[in-house]
Amino acid sequence: MEIRSLTRTEAERRAALVTVERYDVDVDLTDLPEGPEVRCVSTVTFDCHEPGAETFVDCAAQVRSATLNGKPLTPTGDGRIPLPDLTERNVLRVESVQADTTTGQGVHKATDPADGEVYVWMSFEPDEARFVWACFDQPDLKAPHAFTVTAPPAWTVTSNSGDPRVEEVEGARRWTFPDTPPLSVYNTVINAGPFHEIRREVDGHDLGLLTRRSLAAILDRDADEIFTLTGQGLAFFAEAFAMPFPQRKYDQVFVPEFGGAMENYGCVTWSDVFLRRATPTPAESELLAKVLLHEMAHMWFGNIVTMRWWDDLWLNEAFAEFACHWAAERATRFTDAWAGHLAGDKLRAYLSDQGPVSHPIHQPIHDVAQAASIFDNITYPKGASVLQQLMTYVGEERFRAGMTAYFARHAWGSATLQDLVDALSEAGGRDLDTWRTTWLETAGTDRFSLERDGDTVTLVAAGTPRPQVLAVGAYGRNGETLERTALVRVGVTRTRTPVTGLPPEADVLLINDDDLTFATTRPDPTTRDAFFRAAASLPTAISRGVATATVWDMLTTGEATAAEAGRCITAVLAAETSDAVIEPYLTLAADIAELWAPPGERAGLTAEVAAACRRLAADPGRRRIALRGLARTATDPDDLAWLREQAGDDVDLHWRALVREAERGGDVSSETARLLERDPDPDAWVRALTVRAALPDPAAKAEVWQKLAVDRAVPVNSVAQVATVFWRTDQDALLTPYTQRYLDAIPHLHQGGMIPAMVFARQLFPPRAIGPSYIEQARLASREAAPVVRNTLLERSDEVSRMLHSRTPTT
């Protein structure tokens, strides 16, 4: 029987009926070193406001026994256990087993290929706790949780709360954790294994970092940076929200085969890919900082105050994404964090918001399956940008006051969008109902242009714009560069808005200067070509980023060619001074050459990017980034030979060079074997598989597809690395059979939970060896797929469709 997804109506009825007093959960992990089973006993104490009524508890694990107030219960087989004839006070006890700990949901067992050690992690968002133990798996039924975990004696166990009592018991150890504060079940966690652990006291907090033993040297290398960022983040948010993090202990656990990071209260779980095997680049260091601060912001927005239902998912994710950039810029060394946001995630949000999966930031969510489909570019980067605009709109001081009131009012409870709007309206002294309706409940992206008539400048919206505040910058030529001569903030309420205070002699007028809002822009048609040439001459990372975003958006809508966009961005690279954006721009330029350019122009544009990489490599601070870019774009043997010479002892660069040589048909088998032997990375086998994926060889393609898409042997956090190389340029004849295999796989892509579903649906979608008719086939095939698969596929298919259009030579 199919596991049922909780509907909003069911959740509202259950929340009206039930108040959960506490969870006592006993977890046995002692089978895992050799076997697959996690055994749990979940005891739920709860009140019923209508004695005699009935409801259900969620449990998608195998139920061994279940009793309610001492009476036996029978599961229905659909992930639920009916709870009949409730009394005013109730005690539910359920014994369950989850044996699918390799490909199942909620809990995962990973074996380190380096030493055979076993690690286990749990991750429950949105509703995967039910796959491990019995619970009321909805966000608003919060309660204290008391975890008792029995684990092998050499293992360390982490959970949400404080310092556990540890006892020796019959060849194992039992970890008894103090009660958590009231938490949603999806915010709870247990991680366990023979971890390498580092602890440090910072400003009264006991901070812990843990990872598998084979990565101990990497964690030791990065520990100072991570501890510094953690201390800076805790101090910033404590001051910004007038509420210090209320628990002394704060752990961060880096685990294998995990996708992304998860904000479990007091115990954040990370994918250990964030522990870079090579020395991190500036962009990789900034990403770690932003993810760390994103998950930390959830301690307040998501854990202390939790959304009532999943239609307010944006209250968690958009706010955390906004807050991580805010904190990075104000409290850490990553002062160009917003520029990095604009160069990466915001460009993806602009594209998504103009495609078939565009949706309001806040929208009705029928059930949890639908909720899993909106962990996307609208909820995250667009939501973050909209909140940045909201802070601009009401003013930062009033924004802070509103957030302080919101947290004070709703701490340890649940809240809705209206609660947040009310708090910000009161603090800001202005009605935000229109702002809420147009920004949060209306899909799509505003677009602005300027009209000049003599000395008069008018900001013109394409359609009715949202109320917002944005800036127009005026720039004048000073030799080879542009200097800002004026910046005018404009309050937009209608289609045409006069802009006063701009000097009439300005050479460039830049709409949305300082990137204060979420809107696309267009240059005046008469200055279009000059705008493309001027982008590299603008004086700051943000101003260049705003111009680059315009050029990128024009490429995706067919208003600029790949050659125009690629050369503009390559020119920006040559002038760029901010480490936050150089790596994203190199990736963007290479993507344009490889994926957007017509076949006849691809080699030339790729060679231009490669030449830019060789120039950048002369700067010691950008050398590693440039050589990585060259490994992707090298177009002749001289480039590859020079790259190998420059790589020296850098194993990471040698792997990248091998991928490029493999793609070009080189015999790399013996060198791959030698490099695999000398690479200390426990996951180096994935690098070797990536080299094989690039080969223009039918047997290699078949082997890689089997491991990647059928066996799912590649860790979810490495799927993109292998799949991107699998779908290589100029291998269409080899790749054509796999386009059909993707269509055949669509009904099964949801298996394993939300993160694998998103990763496989996107990364396996073919960007090559297809035409427009294939896009329609894929969209038709997705109609019966799980919502998360369908939305991911539709978003990716729209992007690829735009690529196909751009690749078609104009006549």
Automatic annotation (TrEMBL):
Which GO terms fall under molecular function for this chain's record? Answer: alanyl aminopeptidase activity; metalloaminopeptidase activity; peptide binding; zinc ion binding
Q: Which domain of life is it from?
A: Bacteria
Q: What is this protein called?
A: Aminopeptidase N
Q: Which family does it belong to?
A: Belongs to the peptidase M1 family.
Instruction: Write out the catalysed reaction.
Output: Release of an N-terminal amino acid, Xaa-|-Yaa- from a peptide, amide or arylamide. Xaa is preferably Ala, but may be most amino acids including Pro (slow action). When a terminal hydrophobic residue is followed by a prolyl residue, the two may be released as an intact Xaa-Pro dipeptide
* Species in which this protein is naturally found: Streptomyces brasiliensis
Q: State the taxonomy lineage.
A: Bacteria, Bacillati, Actinomycetota, Actinomycetes, Kitasatosporales
Which is a GO BP term held by this UniProt record?
peptide catabolic process
Q: List, for all copies, the residue spans of the domain called Aminopeptidase N-like N-terminal.
A: 115-186
The record's annotation in Pfam families points to: ERAP1_C, Peptidase_M1, Peptidase_M1_N
What InterPro entries does its record include?
A: Aminopeptidase_N-like_N, Aminopeptidase_N-like_N_sf, ERAP1-like_C_dom, Pept_M1_aminopeptidase, Peptidase_M1, Peptidase_M1_aminopeptidases, Peptidase_M1_dom, Peptidase_M4/M1_CTD_sf
Q: Which residues cross the membrane?
A: none
One GO CC annotation = extracellular space
Q: Which cofactor does it need?
A: Zn(2+)
